[in-house]
Amino acid sequence: MATVSVCQYQPRGFSFENCKRNALLEADSTKFGFNAPAARKTGTTICGIVFKDGVVLGADTRATEGMVVADKNCSKIHYISPNIYCCGAGTAADTEMTTQIISSNLELHSLTTSRLPRVATANRMLKQMLFRYQGYIGAALVLGGVDCTGPHLYSIYPHGSTDKLPYVTMGSGSLAAMAVFEDRFKPDMEEEEAKSLVRDAIAAGIFNDLGSGSNIDLCVITKGKVDYLRPHDVANNKGVRTGSYRYKRGTTGVLTKTVTPLNLEVVEESIQTMDTS
Amino acid sequence: QNTRGLRSQLKDSVPVTGLCPQAGPYGVQDTLRRGFSSVKNELLPSHPLELSEKNFQLNQDKMNFNTLRNIQGLHAPLKLQMEYRAARQIQRLPFLPSSNLALDTLRGSDDTIGFEDILNDPVQCEMMGEPHIMTEYKFGLL
Hints:
The complex is a heterodimer of chains A (277) and B (142).
Chain A: H1 19-27, H2 29-32, E1 46-50, E2 54-60, E3 63-65, E4 68-71, E5 77-81, E6 84-90, H3 92-113, H4 119-132, E7 139-147, E8 150-156, E9 162-164, E10 167-170, H5 174-184, H6 191-208, E11 216-222, E12 225-233
Antiparallel strand pairs in A: 1-2, 1-10, 2-11, 3-4, 5-6, 6-7, 7-8, 8-9, 11-12
Chain B: H1 31-34, H2 39-43, H3 48-54, H4 56-72, H5 75-88, H6 101-107, H7 115-118, H8 131-139
């Protein structure tokens, strides 16, 4: 009758019950001969810039699980509110859940205040949540949007620090993308120029970093309009085979041919409809 | 067994007494109700976040009440704490999950969503406490 549920309430939120067991398993993994499954990361290049009328966010589309590509076309630009979008690098599940939670909170907040949400609000909510979990939630984010005070761009690190800058890059390919930005960024660019700069920065990340690859997604946010271009550019096309290895009929000469018919009797025929609901 | 075989992140944890208050009514391990104990479980938290998460709501409330006291005087947090205490008493039977709606409204967490609403939602818990035992425990008869 030693029921645990008699005295202890079930704690809501994260449960740390299995942490000790997991630590022991990992410490003894050589004895058991297996490795713990690796979390799916986005091993990414994400970036954003502020141009004359708004912000342009860019991301690649590869998701990795250790050394294997888990998803060749995943979407890393997440919706936060109609005027705010967020790119996520780090552990894929963490970025997904964090942006969804903040999106719901922002929606409730904007319903309470009857105003379009501000980018600074989303930034503040994200940094307070990430700091609360002391970096254990591995989400590195690039948050951008246009609100009543103008276009804003923030980068948010997993431990909860944020930077408000005109151009930011995050992820494993951030150095390659930042190199392109540092070379060609100018304040108050036109939209086409800004889009091509972001496209080149993500392409630099895709071709020079193993953790990034596949296509380039762009999101252009201006006052009252959002262009979600997915894919904006398919940088890595799967190669086309130049030759065919099929042999023509008659390459191998036929010596003899015998045909043996298998006479089968139909004993019973029944039809079962599949449950395709 | 070597207790230092735990992962390095557990080395950051400081041993804390009373992490799992296992003392029953007689001051010793209440094996009947809480099961067998382990010194390791009591001393080291299993995750560096475990302590801070367990006390998160309490610490937030303390911080807010302190700020309120500094701004508006002692009466403000006192009145609010009285209301919290009243709202906390509105519960269902011990083995049923309570919505805590009044408490949430007072705290302002009725229009926010966090991990505590998504993960381990008590409404979706697969275990249920034994009703008779739990009501008897609540009344102190057990």
